[in-house]
Amino acid sequence: MRVLYGRYYAARDAAVAAHVPDGASVLELCCGPARLYERELRGRIGSYVALEASERFVARLRRRGVDARRADVATAELPVADVVVMQASLYQFLPAADAMVRRMRAAARASVIIAEPVRNLASSPLGFVARLGARAAATAEGAQAQRFDADSLGALLRGGFGDAITFQAPVPGGREHLYVLRGAAAPA
Ligand SMILES: C[S@@+](CC[C@H](N)C(=O)[O-])C[C@H]1O[C@@H](n2cnc3c(N)ncnc32)[C@H](O)[C@@H]1O
Q: Is the CB of 92 under 6 A from ligand 1?
């Protein structure tokens, strides 16, 4: 992941954080190391819960005082929050990514923020770059052939949730696209 995204992490975290209001409750799915929280949100939001499949990430975050919980977000009951975030992870729920987005909206009182890679080294037209990217992705996350490009992500989100989209833009650098959707959970 570090090789794949390098300096884009900081730009992505800042772009996502700009859509999280001060004092909001935040649920992050597939948080990994929870950089967004550690670098941008800690201290200015109301609460933060992170759901993550990896015991290693969860244990490390809990040692740092983060409310991280081990869960398979494809099936877990999602706690309701003002803002539900997923970064660089929606592809893992293909071919049922639309169901994942519906469940995220159902858990979000105000908004759902999705930042998703749309250009991957694994899809590079340069053969050796593609092989490097595919190997890195396989090592980090298990073999995962299906990824989004800008068109397929747009087709999923604009096609299925067009009325709910309040913001969409590439993250500076263009590796990921950021979408903000209205939440569908009842207000507190
Ligand atoms: C590519 S990483 C992204 C991590 C983080 N969101 C980021 O952008 O740095 C994908 C993360 O999703 C987690 N993950 C994969 N499938 C999951 C599932 N079904 N439920 C919860 N977490 C999952 C992995 O353990 C990994 O930490």
A: yes
